[in-house]
Amino acid sequence: MDFELTILGSASATPMLGRHHTAQALSVGRQLYLVDCGEGTQERLIEQRIRFLRLSCIFISHLHGDHFFGLFGLLGTMHLQGRTEPLHLFGPAGLDEVLTTQLRCSGTPLSFDLVFTCVDTTQHRLIHDDHQVQVYTLPMRHRIPCCGYLFREKPRRRRLLKELLPAGLTPEQLQALTRGEDLRDEAGHVWLRQLEVTEAPPAPRSYAYCSDTVYTESLAELVRGVDLLYHECTFLHEMLERAVQTGHSTARQAGQLAQRAAVRQLLIGHFSSRYRDLQPLLDEAQREFADTRLALEGLRVEL
Going by C-beta distance under 8 Å and a sequence separation of 6 or more, which residues neighbour residue 161? Predict the structure, then answer.
């Protein structure tokens, strides 16, 4: 089953040619989740051939424009496309007020239910649970209420070893084996052990999205061991004072957090427009954590 992240935008507050405002698409099996929705996100989705109607949930980190100004346009397009399935939206307080005003003033009655969940950006807690993943909030330290999101895949079922299966098993019996259950006769005696005809599934995968924040060491425990960590790195470390003033992190700090949390891979993004060449940011992060990549637009990372 796919578990793939696509980078749609990786700029900070000011966009530039080839670098758009923050947005990411996470595909897990048949489910599609959007993380932040900066200006122009729907165009980026079109470029990446990602169908809008696949979206089941949208997660907004905070209400600075570079992270959600594309949301109303995306909702409007899905309305025009005739969406009828409910869409789940998660974000901080005030997002519902903004959207309600936009919908009312533009006379846009959505063709689908928009189910809004207001998240507490100061807490680490479970906010969404479906058949593919569980999603948790990650408290950020920014100039306004802000949170990241942690996606943890649910354990997959055991795999059947077809060449070892006896003939004549029913679909119900096959399902029981994939759930890790032995098959028993009417007297309760085990006649087929699941360990003999199945194998363990791959380990569940995980992705942590750390949006705008100053360096927060306590995050390391919340994201410990994740397969993929995205952490903002708006500035080089030589501009640490500016980073702290604006509620952001440096590339070195992103690498330090990844190292402290013992994650498998690190993506860095939210690049300031002052850096046309991103190599120095990558070099700085890699000195702290070798397995670091730039979150360049169009990048797809499959776990």
Answer: 197, 198, 199
> What is the domain extent for residue 137?
3-156+202-302
In a shared domain, residues 167 and 224: no
Q: How far apart, in whole angstroms, are the C-alpha atoms of residue 172 and residue 183?
A: 10
Number of domains, the chain? 2
Instruction: Write down the pLDDT at residue 168.
Output: 83
Instruction: Name which of 84, 92, 145 is nearest 116 in CA terms.
Output: 92
Tokens 């109303």 sit on residue: 72
User: What is the sign of the dihedral through the CA atoms of 119, 46, 50 and 105?
Assistant: positive
**Whole-angstrom Cα distance, residue 36 to residue 267?**
16
DSSP state of 290: S
> Any idea which residues carry the catalytic annotation?
66
- Cα–Cα dist 263/237, whole Å: 21
With both helix axes pointing from N to C terminus, report the angle between 279-288 and 251-261 in degrees, rounded to the nearest 10: 30
Q: Which residues of the chain have pLDDT under 50?
A: none
| d(C-alpha 157, C-alpha 199), whole Å | 9
Same domain, 90 and 124: yes
**Considering only CA atoms, which of 140, 136, 293 is closest in space to residue 228?**
293
Tell how far CA 55 is from the center of its chain: 13
Residue matched to tokens 């998660």: 90
Q: Considering the entire predicted model, what is its pTM? A: 0.90
Q: What is the rounded distance in angstroms from the CA atom of residue 225 to the CA atom of residue 43? A: 34
- Are both 118 and 152 inside the same structural domain? yes
pLDDT, residue 188, reads 84
Rounded to a whole number of angstroms, the distance between the first and last alpha carbons of the chain is: 10
Are 55 and 188 members of one domain?
no
Residue with tokens 């949006």, as numbered in its chain: 211
